[in-house]
Here is the input.
Amino acid sequence: MRVKICGLTTLETLSASVDSGASYVGFVFFEKSPRHLTIKHASIMAKSVPTGICKTALVVDPTDQELDTLLGAVPIDMIQLHGHETAERVSQVKQRFGLPVMKAVGISDETDLDQLSEYSRISDQILVDAKPPKNANIPGGNGLAFDWRLIAGRRWATPWMLAGGLTNKNVAEAARLTGARQFDVSSGVETLTGVKDIQLISNFIQATNGDT
Here is the structure.
């Protein structure tokens, strides 16, 4: 099982994620998010991540100029597109910046599943997430889950990661229902919105490995 701790904002919680066995660490670059990082702060954090752990930048409908600025200052390994980017835009980002791209796809019912197949043919990974509520200010990290039975037994042409409302209490059940082997968590390891907790991070990663 591989875990991504997303929305990290402090060196302390970043270190805890690494020490607990996270395979990915995620930094958010979206000003409306309580987990948003400045490029200066993100650069300091990213440079402290050991080799072998994937540093992911969550961006929302970024322009080429915004990505140029970000990637010129922060050593990122993967771009996570978490907005309304089209399949064509995903391909453009991959070609222009030469980094793996993960595309987030929001799910609420069966009508959303076709998008997963479409993006899986283009993206290096797909993030299967809960669709945010219509009045949400942020596209992810809302602490909501979707009906995991919608993707039970489904597989795609590229690796995928499950997100949305995961906690150490339900991740084992999510794995059982969906067959997921990779998990993305943000609000599920927080005591307050945007405030990660070291013990919750450790508990979540232990839970994905069957430890309690």
In short: The radius of gyration is 16 Å.
